[in-house]
């Protein structure tokens, strides 16, 4: 934890020096980085940054030493149009972007960061590479079928050019593999997987396809007018599926209510607090598996108040699950 605190403190020093036009004293830097540490600690941090390759100039001004960050070493960075803090923040976010590491964007992501690596002298990366140790993201790795990289590239090209495609897809719900003629509108990353939102002319509706179950994609010499763009994202779902919204009310115990209050689960949510610390959440959402999984994830801390048929469906699922343990 102490090591992470040092990294964050030194990161704050870099931001403060980069944005200062006239330089900062040790006292200024201590307030910017962490008022709870001594100026001696800040001086050690500056020495560490200097050893890492950050060129720091200092001069005496009115009896005090003023520190400035020498920008000459960042000329390559200036050519990218990014500031040092922007580049470091982007590098820090790589731990979040790596959630896609097992997916079709892996090579593109690596290529982009390889190009950014050339923007800074190598010694500076010894410090920058430490940043992700203070922030990590975990999640299921996306497993994709052979050729998935090419499928995503083809679908993105079709989305941008409004071009129809012929896609062979295996459906878990029907257990069948069949060919679809689609009008692709959007590729999205959600819940650890990639999904295609496309209009299916044969059905006259928008549908969602999991890209890891796409077996082949062929671009057709046919273009379409995007008339269903407003339906290209599942606005009413807690997951990734389309459908008509339902007025849902879920009661949460005081213990679970604390966690529910911390997040916006859906733009439509309205939270009614009760005197005992519990709350009732009201959402206008599709009653799909995403909603059911969300409610069941709170275990005995949640109960569906409305609609009655959803409460009955979840009660049956809980009863079936319990029988597995009897």
Question: Could you characterize what this model shows?
Answer:
With 326 residues, this protein is of the alpha+beta class. The chain has helices spanning 2-19, 26-33, 39-52, 75-80, 84-92, 94-97, 106-117, 122-128, 148-161, 254-261, 289-296, 308-323, and strands at residues 24-25, 56-61, 64-69, 163-170, 177-190, 193-200, 205-210, 214-223, 246-252, 270-273, 279-285, 302-306. The strands form three sheets. Strands 7-6-5-4-8 form a five-stranded antiparallel beta sheet, covered by helices on one side. A four-stranded antiparallel beta sheet has the order 10-11-9-12. Strand 4 and strand 5 form a beta hairpin. It starts with a helix and ends with a helix. The model has no long low-confidence stretch (mean pLDDT 81).
CATH fold description of the largest domain: Arc Repressor Mutant, subunit A
Could you say how many structural domains there are in total? 3
Coarse morphology: flat
Strand element count: 12
CATH class call of the largest domain? Mainly Alpha
pLDDT averaged over residues: 81
Low-confidence stretches: none
Beta-strand percent range:
25-35%
**Between the first and last Cα atoms, what is the distance in angstroms?**
44 Å
Give me the CATH architecture of the largest domain, please: Orthogonal Bundle
Largest sheet, if any? 5 strands, antiparallel
């Amino acid at each position: 934890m102490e090591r992470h605190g040092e990294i964050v403190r030194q990161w704050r020093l870099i931001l403060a020096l980069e944005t200062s036009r006239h330089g900062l004293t040790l006292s200024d830097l201590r307030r910017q980085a962490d008022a709870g540490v001594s100026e001696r600690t800040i001086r050690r941090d500056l020495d560490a940054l200097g050893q890492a390759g950050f060129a720091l100039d200092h001069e005496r001004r009115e009896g005090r030493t003023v520190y400035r960050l020498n920008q000459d070493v960042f000329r390559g960075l200036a050519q990218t149009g990014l500031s040092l803090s922007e580049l470091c923040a982007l590098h820090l976010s790589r731990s979040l972007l790596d959630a896609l590491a097992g997916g079709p964007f892996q090579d593109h992501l690596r290529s982009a960061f390889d190009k950014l690596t050339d923007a800074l002298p190598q010694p500076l990366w010894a410090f920058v590479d430490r940043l992700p140790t203070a922030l990590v993201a975990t999640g299921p790795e996306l497993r994709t079928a052979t050729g998935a990289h090419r499928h995503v590239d083809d679908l993105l090209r079709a989305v941008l050019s409004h071009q129809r495609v012929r896609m062979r897809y295996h459906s878990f719900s029907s257990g069948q593999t069949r060919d679809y003629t689609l009008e692709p509108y959007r590729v999205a990353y959600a819940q650890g997987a990639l999904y295609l939102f496309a209009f299916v002319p044969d059905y006259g509706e928008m549908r969602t396809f999991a890209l890891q179950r796409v077996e082949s994609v062929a671009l057709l010499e046919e273009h379409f007018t995007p008339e269903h763009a407003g339906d290209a994202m599942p606005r009413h779902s807690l997951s990734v599926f389309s459908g008509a919204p339902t007025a849902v009310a879920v009661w949460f115990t005081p213990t679970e209510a604390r966690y529910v209050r911390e997040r916006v689960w859906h733009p439509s949510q309205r939270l009614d607090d009760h005197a005992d610390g519990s709350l009732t959440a009201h959402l206008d959402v599709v009653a799909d598996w995403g909603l059911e999984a969300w409610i069941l994830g709170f275990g005995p801390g949640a109960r569906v108040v409305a609609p009655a048929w959803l409460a009955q469906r979840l009660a049956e699922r809980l009863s079936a699950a319990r029988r597995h343990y009897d």
